[in-house]
Design brief:
- The structure holds 2 protein chains of 2 kinds.
- By secondary structure, chain A is an alpha/beta fold.
- In chain A, 34% of the residues lie in helices and 25% in strands.
- Chain A is globular.
- Chain B is α+β, with helices and mostly antiparallel strands.
- Chain B has helices at 2-12, 14-51, 86-89, 92-97, 127-130, 216-226, 243-247, 260-266, 285-305, 320-363, 365-373, 378-419, 430-456, 460-466; strands at residues 56-60, 99-111, 116-122, 135-137, 148-151, 206-209, 213-215, 233-237, 256-259, 274-279, 315-319.
- A 9-stranded mixed sheet of chain B has the order 4-8-7-9-3-2-10-1-11.
- In chain B, helix 6 (216-226) links the parallel strand 7 and strand 8.
- The longest helix of chain B has 44 residues, at 320-363.
- Classes of the chains: A alpha/beta, B alpha+beta.
- Chain A binds chain B through residues 46, 50, 53, 55-56, 75-76, 79-80, 82-84, 86, 88, 90, 92, 94, 96-99, 103, 106-108, 110-112, 155-156, 159, and chain B through 1, 4-5, 8-9, 12, 366-367, 370-378, 380, 460-461, 464-465, 467-468.
- Bound molecules: adenosine-5'-triphosphate (ATP) and magnesium ion.
- Magnesium ion (MG) binds next to helix 1 of chain A.
Chain lengths: 229, 468
């Protein structure tokens, strides 16, 4: 899925002074590209990702996912877009602790109306992909951080999205797990036509992407293609 | 999926769920217990009325119109109808219209060894006609009226100075209906004066008692009370009393049916509480009712003129349906009161449930935000919350039903003890069970509404930034 941002502005007005976080962001990400977004803390990287993920509205500007300007869509439609077209991975994993590993992965599929058998079948494939078939029936709360993040990635991929958004997916992980997660993300990006946008403040992590852009003072700056391949 | 998530959410905070459960159990339990008493009463009134072969009731208008003893006597005590009124009721004119039987009825009670035994007194040979479908053993007509002699108090007579006691009244035949007679009612119009004026009447410890008819459970009590060893007519089955209950606790709407003559003999001045009128053809009930009203009015007017009238001033003539309706109205107030009382409990349960759901919801706002982020709609999340509340509350409802059943039994016993009534009154009807279940479901939904509202309005991004 191609992602196009045009003149996106975002101002937080809740503080004592209005906080202008995004000040006319323009960006084109071709379908299937793996992009890393870096920048100093508080630059607005998460804010950008929430806008892309249809979790928040810009103050103005256009956000095209595929051919749709989702900035103009209502919440009910955006719920469907989130469910079927976007996968979101968080720094703090955000699995549902009351559910098992398998159930966490099948949850979005069942929300999308897949049958139990179908969704379990697909979940097993995803578990194989992340190498966690053995932990299938464990409660998600007992997993290690790296394992949780892998499950979270599998959950994000459940409905075969065209856009994967990851907000510092390795921020809470040690070096070994970080490497593992990034490799998973990279291989998924390569094996599917999956546009991937990953926020990270770790330059090493950014190496895994095909392209790195930097967010600074509300604007995006191209850091060129520093592909690790 | 939603259901199983909801179910697991219930189990996530077991202590809290348990406490809410207790609240719901108590609320639904008390609802069942309280309402079942009222419901039981209504059911029994209807069952009994429906099974009587009586089409028109003549009562004093202050009477409470409750056909089921023991409360049946309540309110009707002072309102009596003169005995000689029967001559009006079974006049040739009315017979021609279709009146086939007039049954004078007295409601009273005996102080039994264990509890108060409600008594209905009527001409014995009417019993089988009035309680159609009842089974008696032996048949009333096989009994000889004078078989039993007994000493001791029957229904409390008005305290009268004891004069010279007559040692032997036992052989006095009294206004005995000969059981072998035609089923025509005994003529009661030849009033009391043969024993003289009321004040001059002798009080005696011995008098003739006619065969008592009792339910199986009360047979022993009655025998003990009346000293009757044989000649007791046992009603084995009445159409409106389930067979299973006949033996237990002496459950019988009319535990004791005594021949009205026994009462009259003891209290010659006594009137009756009701006249039950049976007609040949139900189609003419309204015509007969109208005619009865006119004739009774004339009768009372005439009596009042000659200043010897001591009966009820205003007399009601009700068809079966009207009687039932007024009984229902009467019971309705009790029902309303009980529902109101139990609703307080239900409101408390709603509050408790709401509190639980609210706490759980606030705890899980981050989780709900995650669900929204992975694509769950607001509707799905509301459903999860509602399911969770319904799980909790319907479980509580089912347990509450069980608890209510037990409480009903206890309540029955308490009522029986306090009022000295041998009746289990509560009736847990299927409708009541359904109501209780629906009620608990509603408690759940009501408790989930505010949490749903809160969750549908959460600031997604703020929750996601907060972390878990
Ligand atoms: N609701 C809000 N009200 C006011 N200011 C906000 C709000 N949310 C975020 N901000 C501010 O917006 C700015 C951008 O936040 P954002 O989380 O997007 O930064 P970031 O680049 O992701 O930072 P980090 O690398 O630390 O995650 C920050 O200065 C933050 O304080
Ligand atoms: Mg951030």
């Amino acid at each position: 899925m191609e992602v196009v941002l045009r003149g996106v502005h975002k101002v937080y007005k809740t503080g004592p002074r209005p906080n202008k976080v995004l000040d006319g962001v323009d960006l084109v990400v071709p379908s299937g590209q793996f992009v890393a977004v870096t920048g100093p803390s508080g630059a607005g990287k998460s804010s950008l990702l929430y806008l892309l993920g249809c979790l928040d509205y810009p103050d103005f500007g256009e956000i095209h996912l595929g051919n749709r300007d989702v900035a103009k869509d209502g919440e009910s439609l955006r719920e469907k877009i989130r469910l079927r077209h976007i996968g979101f991975v968080f720094q703090d994993f955000r699995l549902i602790p009351a559910l098992t590993v398998l159930e966490n992965i099948t949850l979005p599929m069942q929300l999308a109306g897949l049958s139990g058998a179908e969704s379990r079948q697909r979940a097993r494939e995803l578990l194989r992909l992340i190498g966690m078939e053995r932990e299938r029936d464990q409660m998600s709360g007992v997993l290690s951080g790296g394992q949780k993040q892998k499950v979270a990635i599998a959950r994000a991929l459940a409905n075969l999205p065209e856009l994967l958004l990851a907000d510092e997916p390795t921020g809470n992980l040690d070096t070994a797990s970080t490497r593992e997660i990034l490799e998973v993300l990279q291989s998924i990006n390569k094996s599917r036509t999956l546009t991937t946008i990953m926020v990270t403040h770790d330059p090493q992590a950014a190496q895994f992407a095909e392209r790195t852009i930097e967010l600074d003072r509300g604007r995006l700056r191209e850091k060129g293609h520093e592909s690790a391949r | 999926m939603i259901a199983s998530l909801a179910f697991r959410n219930v189990l996530r905070n077991k202590e809290r769920s348990l406490l809410t459960l207790v609240g719901v159990v108590l609320a639904i339990g008390s609802f069942v217990a309280l309402v079942s008493v009222a419901a039981g009463f209504t059911v029994r009134v209807e069952r009994e009325m429906g099974s009587r072969e009586v089409h028109i009731y003549v009562t004093g208008s202050r009477a409470s119109n409750l056909p089921v003893s023991p409360l049946a006597g309540a309110g009707s005590g002072g309102v009596s109808l003169p005995r000689d009124m029967i001559s009006i009721l079974e006049s040739q004119e009315l017979r021609n219209k279709g009146v086939s039987m007039v049954t004078p009825v007295i409601r009273s009670h005996l102080d039994g060894p264990r509890s108060v035994i409600p008594v209905i007194a009527l001409p014995l040979d009417h019993a089988q006609n009035v309680f159609k479908g009842g089974r008696f053993s032996p048949e009333p007509r096989d009994l000889k009226a004078e078989t039993v002699v007994r000493s001791g108090p029957l229904p409390a007579a008005t305290p009268e100075p004891e004069l010279s006691p007559t040692p032997e009244i036992s052989s006095s035949p009294g206004p005995t209906p000969s059981p072998t007679d035609s089923p025509a009612p005994p003529s009661l119009s030849q009033e009391p004066d043969k024993t003289g004026p009321a004040g001059a009447r002798k009080r005696s410890d011995e008098y003739t008692v006619y065969p008592a008819i009792t339910g199986q459970g009360l047979e022993r009590d009655i025998q003990e009370l009346l000293g009757v060893t044989d000649g007791v007519l046992v009603i084995e089955e009445l159409p409106f009393v389930p067979q299973a209950k006949m033996g237990s606790l002496g459950f019988l709407d009319y535990s004791v049916i005594l021949p009205i003559e026994a009462f009259f003999e003891q209290r010659p001045d006594r009137g009756v509480h009701e006249y039950w009128i049976t007609v040949e053809n139900e189609a003419v009930v309204n015509d007969i009712q109208a005619l009865l009203k006119v004739r009774i009015e004339e009768y009372v007017a005439k009596k009042e003129q000659s200043k010897d009238y001591a009966g009820a001033r205003s007399i009601e003539v009700l068809t079966r349906r009207q009687y039932l309706k007024s009984a229902r109205e009467y019971l309705g107030y009790g029902w309303l009161l009980q529902v109101a009382v139990s609703m307080v409990g239900v409101l408390i349960a709603i509050t408790a449930s709401m509190n639980t759901m609210l706490m759980s919801t606030y705890e899980r706002l981050g989780e709900y935000a995650t669900l929204r982020a992975v694509g769950a709609s607001r509707r799905v999340i509301s459903l999860t919350i509602i399911f969770e509340a319904i799980f909790l509350n319907v479980t509580g409802g089912v347990l509450g039903l069980l608890f209510g059943f037990l409480a009903t039994g206890v309540l029955d016993k308490a009522v029986a003890l306090l009022l000295e009534i041998p009746y289990p009154m509560a009736e847990v009807t299927p409708a009541l069970l359904l109501q209780a279940l629906i009620l608990s479901g509603c408690v759940g939904v009501a408790g989930a509404l505010i949490p749903c509202f809160i969750v549908s309005r959460i600031d997604l991004v703020a929750q996601l930034r907060k972390g878990l």
